[in-house]
Amino acid sequence: GLDRVAVAEEDDDPAAGGAVPFHGAHQAGIATPVQDRLHFAAFDVTTGDRAKLVRMLKDWTAAAAAMTAGRPVGQGATGGPAVAPPDDTGEAEGLPPSRLTLTIGFGPSLFAKDGKDRFGIGARRPPALVDLPHFPGDNLDPARSGGDIAVQACADDPQVAVHAIRNLARIGFGVVAVRWSQLGFGKTSSTTPDAQTPRNLFGFKDGTENIAGTDDALLGKHVWASGGDGSDWMAGGSYLVARRIRMHIETWDRTSLREQEDIFGRSKGEGAPAGARKERDAIVLSRMKPDAHVRLAHPDSNGGTRILRRGYSFTDGSDGLGRLEAGLFFIAFQRDPRTGFIRVQQSLATDAMNEYVQHVGSGVFACPPGVKEGGYWGETLFG
Ligand SMILES: C=CC1=C(C)c2cc3[nH]c(cc4nc(cc5[nH]c(cc1n2)c(C)c5CCC(=O)O)C(CCC(=O)O)=C4C)c(C)c3C=C
Ligand SMILES: [Fe+2]
Q: Which of 202, 330, 350 gets mutated to test ligand 1 (max ligand atoms within 8 A of its CB)?
């Protein structure tokens, strides 16, 4: 679409320093090219005052538009009065925009929490924003799951992504509090198929069969919600599913190459599908083991469904037992989680990879459409 043409132009222009346009028909950070780093934060709303929440969303929008353009928040780190804390925390001073994108989503609990409709939007909860069901093998930590509002910050520089979340949290003081957050590196999927496919912490190319950010037909069919889907305010938006997936890499590293390749149904070096030579050779599912990850996740095994993957690797130190606390922070965007993530994850119940992974955190969020000039995040819901 038009907004992505603008991205390409700005990317080619060194003076722009890699700024991704904030305004547009869709939020940036979904179909736009995947950056190197992630800081994802889920917030709880701590006030019951709808007007305060809307005021904050407007303040957040102004700050997001500034930061994604490489500008500081408000009067910056030093431009304001000496007697007050600065508007901007300052650590991104002098850094380029680094392709920062900020993408907001609203969780089921924003619409109803403990049976209470705190903000008068209960009736506008989209039918597609379902609570995720329990999946076999789930070991979810409530302290790493859920949240009323999520913000996905992606940038090529981790300092820029962390700065963005920190400043939103600061602006939201008294209205929202961070419930959990996650840093990520080494994108595990790209939306630019012509670029080299990145590898995950199992050492495999990840994202080969992802939806390309330029494929408007596939995006329209599988990623962007439409007004006819049952929620008019979500037209042009998308649903984000996040899963913190712990990977038992020490066990994996003692597994033979053949076993590893059988588990995915692709070769480790080239990333070629079983029985083929090259990464992009045709996939023949019958050549893969019945419990191979790619065979079970493939559209042909799931009624043709597709999701846009945009996850990152993480390593949060070690776990006290000498094992790396590492894994994949899985992020998928889809038009409807019921036919997207939930359908595929149910199919993965028999995945051979399950012996090596465990889902420990989870969230589902409705990401509204893009912001028009002069508009604000969530305007179609609250306006
Ligand atoms: C429910 C959705 C999925 C989860 C959860 C998931 C976890 C997960 N995946 C890998 C590694 C790979 N996944 C690959 C392909 C692939 N994975 C999913 C979905 C989920 N993965 C899909 C839809 C696909 C594409 C299938 C297809 O159409 O062919 C691959 C192969 C390369 C590729 O196409 O991306 C790898 C490798 C890990 C390590 C992981 C959890 C830790
Ligand atoms: Fe996968």
A: 330
